[in-house]
Input
Amino acid sequence: MTAAGLAVDHGAGGTPALRLAGATMAFGGVTVLRDAAIGIGRGEIRALVGKNGSGKSTLIKILSGYHRPQPGAVLEIAGRSYEFPIRPERLRAAGLSFIHQDLGLVPEASVLDNVLVGRFAGGRVAPIGWRGERERVRRVLARFELDVPLDRPVRLLSPVERAFVAIARGFIDAEAQGGVLVLDEPTAFLPQEDVGRLFQAIRGLAASGQAILYVSHRLDEILDLTHTVTVLRDGNIVHDDVTANLTEDQLVRHILGEDVRTFYPALAAAKAEPALAVDGLSGRGVADVSFALKKGEILGVSGLAGAGWETLPYLLSGATPARAGTIRTEAGRTDAAALRPDRARRLGIALLPADRQKASGAQALSLRENASLPVLGRYFRRGLMRRGAERAATAELLRNFQVRPAIPEAPLRTLSGGNQQKLLLGKWIQTKPGVLVLHEPTQGVDVGSKQDIFRKIEEIAASGVAVILASAESEDLARLCHRVLVLRRGAVAGILEGDQLSETAINDLSFRGHGAGGAAGGTQ
Amino acid sequence: MTDDTIAIGRPTGGTFAFARGLLDFERYGLVYVWLLLILAFSLFVPSFFRLSTFQIILGSQATQIIVTLAVVVALLGGEFDLSVANVVAVAGTATVTLNTDFGWPIGITLVAVLAAAIAFGALNAFVSVAVGVPSIITTLGSGTLLMGLSTGWAGSAPRGGVDGGFVALASAPIFGLPLSIYTTFAIGIALYYVLEHTPLGRAFVFAGQNAEVARLAGIRVDRLRAASLVWSAVFSALAGILLVGITGASVPAVASGYLLPAFAGAFLGSTVIRPGRFNVPGVFVAIYFLVTGVTGLQLLGYTGWVNDVFYGASLVIAVLLTQIVARRRRNRALAGG
Amino acid sequence: MTDDTIAIGRPTGGTFAFARGLLDFERYGLVYVWLLLILAFSLFVPSFFRLSTFQIILGSQATQIIVTLAVVVALLGGEFDLSVANVVAVAGTATVTLNTDFGWPIGITLVAVLAAAIAFGALNAFVSVAVGVPSIITTLGSGTLLMGLSTGWAGSAPRGGVDGGFVALASAPIFGLPLSIYTTFAIGIALYYVLEHTPLGRAFVFAGQNAEVARLAGIRVDRLRAASLVWSAVFSALAGILLVGITGASVPAVASGYLLPAFAGAFLGSTVIRPGRFNVPGVFVAIYFLVTGVTGLQLLGYTGWVNDVFYGASLVIAVLLTQIVARRRRNRALAGG
Amino acid sequence: DDAATARAAAEAAKIVEAHRGTPEFWAPPAFDSTPARGKTVWWISDYKTNILKQWALQGETAAAEAGLKFHLYDGGGSVPEQVRGFELAIAAKADAIVLGTGYPAVAFTAQVAQAKAAGIPVFSINSHPLGPDAPPRVDGHVADISYDYPAAGRLLADWFVADSGGKGHVLLVDITGLPSAGWTLDGFRAETKRLGVPVTISEAATSLGPSVQTDLANLAGTSLLRDPSIGYIIPPFDDFALFIQTGLSQAGASGAKVKTAGFNAVLTQVGNLKRGGTQLAIDLGGPNQWFSYAVIDNVLRVLSGQPAIHDYRIGYKVFDHENTQSIDATREVATDWYGVDYGARFKELWGAK
Ligand SMILES: Nc1ncnc2c1ncn2[C@@H]1O[C@H](COP(=O)(O)OP(=O)(O)OP(=O)(O)O)[C@@H](O)[C@H]1O
Ligand SMILES: Nc1ncnc2c1ncn2[C@@H]1O[C@H](COP(=O)(O)OP(=O)(O)OP(=O)(O)O)[C@@H](O)[C@H]1O
Ligand SMILES: [Mg+2]
Ligand SMILES: [Mg+2]
Output
């Protein structure tokens, strides 16, 4: 579906639902958004795209009242103009609702609180009508076929469930207020089959007259879902167009400012020596999984949500204790049940977790401190940490992985989402592991960087490292991996390789016996 | 640890939920330990199982519970308020001084003291929230400052002579318990209601758990943090006033006795009813558990260090037990799932 | 509130980096306030600017600094150790009792006391880390327990009579300062070295910031947390032993005086040198800043409640000033960019 | 003039000398204590303060000797805990309550009134000036049993005047929050005035709180910086003198020439005197056994229908390095330290046959 068939109401005809102009934002002297302007009409779904760190989330945080832009910014919502700084609840009252990048959930708080706090019906100290409120949340969650206990702390949910909780909050606001719904990379945590449900809901909202601002790095989504596109590059708006007028290649060119064709690096052949043997691995959501991996081989791991492939990386690296099984690498052999992260590291297994908020970095510490954590010993010479060497190595790593801004002493939290991901990948690759386990390594990463990351993965595999790539992106897996292991209901459904290996084959194997798209989004 | 890395399929809901809920050792562990303690004392301590004992146990904690609630309110707001005990002391001193030396009627005195408490809490809030000084420093500093000023103003000797009607009112017995303890329960229930059952309270707890995220979710975190410090001061002042009502006098030196028990109560309370979260009913359970043990021992004639040993050991062991039992059950559930 | 978006565009390295670094008000604000205070006192208080004043200021904080470092070690490990003051007291009591009543030679006594401190720290670690009871409850409980047991064993009276040679050694003057203060500086420097310049220390600090990430990086976070509690106990015991060396006696009752100043020092220290992070040099600056002010006032003849007022006010105002100035400079930098 | 000063110093020295031996026992009137036999006294104490605990434990012995049932309650330093002590005592139908925490009865006005309503007399210790009408009067409060603090202050002043030849410079440190400290210092000032000697008196204060140890130690050091002519520091109790000693030893050479002294004769300090080598020059003691027996005597008296006594005229002894050589400084035994078995003397009065 494209914009052509829809009655989009913007421009001169009616008042736009949202208009932001002259938005400039600087952090510590670095301007990350320059005189940005964006407008969305009722019923319009507008994409906001750009490289990592181009300023998308910053623009959104200005809209949400979280950041205060420099003087001169103009904001109009449904024809009414607002003066910055604006308090968040005023913006919400005016009809803006948000689904923030990295979700913006409080892990200790319950599902119910996460969805509803700040939006309960009634006065501030009036009793909460629990029954009605629960029903309200259950209804929104049900729309995404999610059935989780409302009192469960969000930290106990799976990433997919968490994503839907955040989405539910945005939808509750949008439905209550009408106006504009802003989604910042909502699908980063969602497998393909759940994206469909989200899109259906978004289209429903748009059809009812809502304006939608949608941020994503997945170009197929942009082309499929949105009517119009705004492209940010280095803080400047460089293009604004109707989506239907653009091809994927053109879009990429606008985003990157250069002509880059989607490509996957050529695969070097795997070596003969075994790198990893997993035997009878059982644990949370996984039963009796066995496979082997050669040096230099890239093994994809995939399946439907909840099929067990998401926990496999954690079982393999000892982050989640396994129940049974053995794991053997070049460095030794161990009982999977006794495997802990420190043991795994000694076996040469390194893990890049998908969950950036919780498990990937210390947000308050510097890039240098985050990057050198697994290799601190390298900089310890003659009784002192060689901070100069450490800083140089970090700078090198930042350059190598195109992390921007490349300031080793900046706190991690000042990096944009995609740049954090690149840094963390670099952090693990520098440890020169025997087996590198990656869980959604390109999540939230722009198209250009995605290719860089693929190249890095290919390079490291070519150097003899065995790579396990757990991802729901079946196209990427089909093109990048030597073999792909598909899990279904916790067991191995099959291993695809050579000619059998294709995107459709992965999907078929994942779905077989379920009926297309019907699986529940929850855990096992 | 690793238990929270993955969503686990713990069954919830269902018909037996309520009964199963009561058996939830993680939530009610301390309550059971407490009941056991009462049972043991009732069996083995002759003078324990009497109405008067329970009346005294209930009645004697009126002020300590309020101070503990003050600490809990601050903690829920994400703040450490170390000035609570000083506010108790100074509120008491001010009440007596204004009422006797200055001859202000008791009503006006109380209003003035509470207004001063609000001002003090607002000062804490300004320094901690608006300027961004960690509240643990702010309140340690402002508490010491307050105490010093009060000593300079009204001296450090205990003072009596406060309005007799006020004292009579505070200790007026209703069903054998002094009015003061009803005040405490009223405050506790009101706070429970606000925190658990109003939009404001939910936002407050939510913001205290993760200010940054709450701000993204559109909550005015700074206001709530400020409010937590103001309310903490107000509650402490109420406790000070109540103490004057109970004893008929102000004792500036009381300050030091309230602080640690209040934190102990708040944290011990966070292991029951709503494990892992500071909560109002938990405070009541925790404080009454501790005082039950101490009272029983006192009735047995143990004093001094035995009390310390009991207090310390029971604090550790009670929590240890509930944790171990809860963990075992969790593991069993996991293994089964 | 976007003020925490610091520093990213700040140029690093370069020739003027060092000088510019010293002008960094956020990092050195309290140092400047301290220097200003010294300057003011030197100008206006006749007897202030003398070697002997500085000797007293330096020498008097030997034990308080060690206790504060104990608190900092625990805080860096993500733990709250409320038992430090009790350990100071009990270590002192045990040292005197073993040395006098039991007649153990002072060397063996000290080894025994430190071994007991390790055992106590290990108990805290077991309960907090292995079982998962929040350390603030564990240490509140275990500290009270320890104190009770100690009172039961050796009474609560001050006790003297400890080995004269030990006392002489602790107060042996080197360049006009007692040996005790050199001990404190040695401990401070060693701790600074380990935390800042060894992989272990770096891993420790990281684990305190984000345990899960550290764990996934193969760091045995539980061990480090346990170590933080053990070292906290050991440092506290060292302070207790040193105190016996300085006074020649143990005074169980006054140990509680160490707790709040230690937390004040730790948190005030976290606003300097490495703002936002507990750090060793910050502790020294914080504690000496506070004692400088009190000393100056005493030299001016102000004692009693005026001291409390100053202590409280300076705690708040010093941090307030550095925060406000740092913020203003940041905003100016922002506007200029 | 010098001659008058020398005369005054000699007078002071004589007073001190007279107190280096056994204090004379003042016997209150004897009475028949049978009506009080078997009655129960609750003693609310605060074990966190060592001397309060010592008095309570001596009181327990005295009560046993007097045929009273004794219930010891430790209220710590906490006011609500002490309130509970009153309530438990009243609920347990105690016959008398001793508020043994050093707080004046006024701190528990309401509880004392409740006790009175229940017919229970309340006594307190060391918290009011001597005499039947000592303020603050509280309804239901029968008597305060106390040392004569001004007298102790006078004796300390006599020692100071004698030791310094009437020309010394003393720093008096008030401990705010501890009224008896003020009374003692009042006695000190009055005595120097009476003697009419040209001594110099400086004043300082610190509050009774958790940081009193470090506060006093710092105060000692800085006072000397401020005025190096200070030769004496009176805190005025000897357990505080211990902290002054710490400060003096930290002050190095300037601290070495300063003397300190105090009242109470606690074990540690008597031990320090006996060993010598600290800044503590003398320690003034009032027999703790005498004191605790006096408390029980008063309770027994009132429960037997006798009038209460408001001044037990407890005697004092000055301890110094010489006269401590012959005593056992590892535990306080009245006969050894003061030369009298006060318990036996009291028992004689109670008609205990
Ligand atoms: N709090 C902050 N302090 C300093 N710099 C920041 C802060 N937040 C963002 N930045 C910087 O602003 C720039 C834009 O970041 P933003 O998060 O808007 O990027 P983005 O377009 O959303 O990228 P991504 O696709 O990776 O999410 C980046 O260079 C980032 O490092
Ligand atoms: N983690 C840190 N964050 C911020 N500043 C730091 C940190 N560690 C040290 N510094 C400061 O940086 C300055 C430079 O010292 P540092 O030893 O790091 O540099 P170096 O001499 O280049 O390293 P090396 O010689 O050890 O290789 C010092 O003033 C130090 O206090
Ligand atoms: Mg972003
Ligand atoms: Mg260096």
In short: Chain D has a mean pLDDT of 91. Chain D touches chain C through 48 residues (CB under 8 Å).
